[in-house]
Design a protein that fits this description.
four-stranded antiparallel β-sheet; 17 strands; about 500 residues; Aspartate Aminotransferase, domain 2; seven-stranded mixed β-sheet; globular; 2 domains; alpha/beta; Aspartate Aminotransferase, domain 1
Length: about 500
Amino acid sequence: MMKILASPGGLLRSSEPAGFLTQYPQYERTRVLDEARRTEYAHLDRTGHVYLDYTGACLAATAQYQAHSERLTDQCFGNPHSENPASRASTERVERARAAVLAHFNADPAEYAAIFTANATAACRLVGESYRFEHDNRLVLTFDNHNSVNGLREFARARRTAVSYVSGDGHDLRTDTALVESALSRHVIGRRGPAGLFAYPAQSNFSGVRHPLDWVDLAHRHGFDVLLDAAAYVPTNRLDLSQVKPEFVTVSWYKLFGYPTGLGCLIARREALARLRRPWFSGGTIQAVSVQGDWHVMAPDESAFEDGTVNFLAIPDVEFGLRWLRNLRLELIGERVHCLTGWLLQRLGDLTHSNGAPMARIYGPRDTTDRGGTVAFNFLDPQGRVVDERLVEREAAAAKISLRTGCFCNPGAGELAFGIGRSALRGRIGRKSRGIDDYLRTLRLPSGGAVRVSLGLVSNVADVEGFIAFAERAYRDRPATAEGLPARERC
């Protein structure tokens, strides 16, 4: 356990600065997570690893791996498309996991279905390839979207459906609700059926901005279906689908609890599923099919969207992972991340060079209002030049710090953050661009992306302080340089 020291203000853990608990006394309520870190995530402190990439992937507990091993060695599991004992055992565990997913999101099974996919990207593709895009409906996207959502525009354009983007503020990377409403109000009057599809993230994977869940109802009032990308939001927040009712929700399980990987989910309203038209069928998705008769009948339930054989050995781990989160209490995780994010933002903002110049440029909100534990920024040298993010990643790795750099598959947020306007892009960058270095030279940008630090399940103050100490050692009063760094391959 952490050593306890006496201090004028009371008891203080040796790795926590006095000012932290003064500003965030509610952090004390989250101490159970310290015990979980000591027992179930012991490798972090044993190896001196500062893990700051929870938006990339959460960490799994030792108990999760043990439960997986015990389950597989205790019983025989087989392909679920049969009635033999091994098959029935798999089917039972898959259906238990499906029910656990709906219960976690407080989704009525009569209203919502949980469809297991390879990842959140596959969940987005299921919607994109099957949605009834037509010439007189529209796809509306926010600038701030993961590329797995941006890719929906290719399905829409292939069917001659208009695509429009809603811009955001370049300072705090938020999107004005009035702009969203304006975009949603421009649709064909008198059209039968939905006006189109509106897709946005509940929380940005670039900046941590939390976009209003109220936009779901706003879109419904204008006749739109909604795809809500919840991948970055649900690891630290409760999403109650009895209150907020998008047609489609995409989730990636390893972002919630680390294991299993290669498994995501599309949670969809059943009436919206009934309106989708899949462009093909496969093993497991049909009720009946004929080769000579040249016809097929799709399965009547969610299995029509689960291609082939589902990952029946890993899906039961989702049920255990959700139970693990419930035992740790998602509300406590969210509260801890809120406190640590506020402290990280303050510490980054306080970093200065000897000449008084700031050491960091933060992209997105500078406080904890309506934001999650993802913080994007660049280090600056004493003259205000950007320190190449590739250098930061390389030197952080040498210090046993896991963080992420780049544009994080979110080019729209990146373009807003770096002040890249449409006029700069139009006619100068296109399909013939020879890569990210060509892109940077054309736009005269000093860096190919940002540094992203993200907090999560068992982060603590020592992680934040360890990172700040690294930054002070590595970049205070140091001139920016990109010498010796490899060419960029992608953004």
